[in-house]
Amino acid sequence: MAASRTTAEEHERRAIWLLGLPTFALALSITVVTTYLPLIAQEFTDSSIVVGLLIGSEGLLALGLPLVVGTWSDQLKSPIGGRLPFLIAATPPLAISLALLGFAHSLVIALGLCWLFFAAYFVAYEPYRALYPDLVSDANAGKSQSVQAIWRGAATGLALVAGGLLFDLAPWVPFVTAAVVTLAVMVIFLRAMLNGPRRRWHEPEHPKPLGEAVRELRSLVAGRKGLQAYLVANALWEASLGALKTFVLLYITVGLGIEIGDAALIVGAGAIFVLVGAVGSGLLADRYGQLRILRVTLVVYGIGLLVPAVTTATLPIVLIAPIAAFGGGALMTLPYALLMPHMPAAAHGALTGFYSLSRGVGTMFGPLLTGIAVELLKSPLDGTKGYQAMWLVCGGTVLASLWFVRLMARAAPQLEEPDAAAEL
Length: 424
Description:
Blueprint: H1 2-18, H2 20-41, H3 48-62, H4 65-75, H5 84-101, H6 107-135, H7 141-169, H8 173-195, H9 210-222, H10 225-255, H11 260-288, H12 290-310, H13 314-339, H14 348-376, H15 390-411
Helix pairs in contact: 2-6, 2-7, 2-8, 2-10, 3-6, 3-14, 4-6, 4-14, 5-6, 5-8, 6-14, 7-8, 7-11, 7-13, 10-11, 10-14, 10-15, 11-12, 11-13, 12-13, 12-15, 14-15
């Protein structure tokens, strides 16, 4: 029995690392889009609101598509399970639209390609994320998200540093390069999953019509105050991250007047601390409790994000940057780990869709609100052409989420403890 338990643990450990490959591919692609498309957009618009709407269109699609796709993947029966068919179908249009975005020189073309890219992204992402609760035990939820954060951090850092250097060569180069890498990594993952020994596929015992499954999810959320608070809190976290990803290079290059190559190196250095925070927070959460670590992180991270809003002096920003970046890494890791242990077995895909619905609300409003704030504060913040206002949105949304984290803790006090099995 001990030998079989050891074998099972080895299979799960391998699965945790293998599951990180799509995160690398998807994080690389979406970082290139959200970071460098705003720079291309300067060719056809000088409005930060238009830039916010362009990138925020991700959130508009996320209001419905993830929930439908995630629930559908719970119900789909096929020889390769309910999840992988969606990844196979979504990968080609995702890579093609990503490559073509580098050649978009009008708002209409950029918006159309954005919608295609984000639609393919969500079709792949929801079933893929549902593979985590399918294949990873609750005891390793935090660990799995820390490993995923390593892949995400590596992809984000690569996209920021290499993307900036490639952008200097020609604006289309980082998009085409990212598309090729994304396609290759997804093919490697799919081949490994299809050929892997003793692979467990999710199969619904009693498939339901899609509409009925969505209605059941709505009823499930309606009866859980903790899940409702989670929906708002996660939306606020994603609003902060969405605003940061969309406008940070514009803040550095346009607001501070730093060259794109140097800006990419600056942001890439910050990505190292993001990676450390992502890995460390998952391990700390498993030991001390997810909400306990999250509360401390939100206070430090939120205050740290407000520092650049009140000063452009180098010293205070340099001192606070590593701490704030650590908090950002934690915020990329803990939210889904917090949700994983509380997913009913038959609703992994549906609640993953619920997770992305909350993300979508944030990614839609974060860039849009930041674009509006930049336009409104251009005069008082003339030194950075208004882009300093980005930090007010980033820090304000993080601090506002503390109220909803408190409501989550009230709904499930056990979540303050490690290895809690309470329901949100």
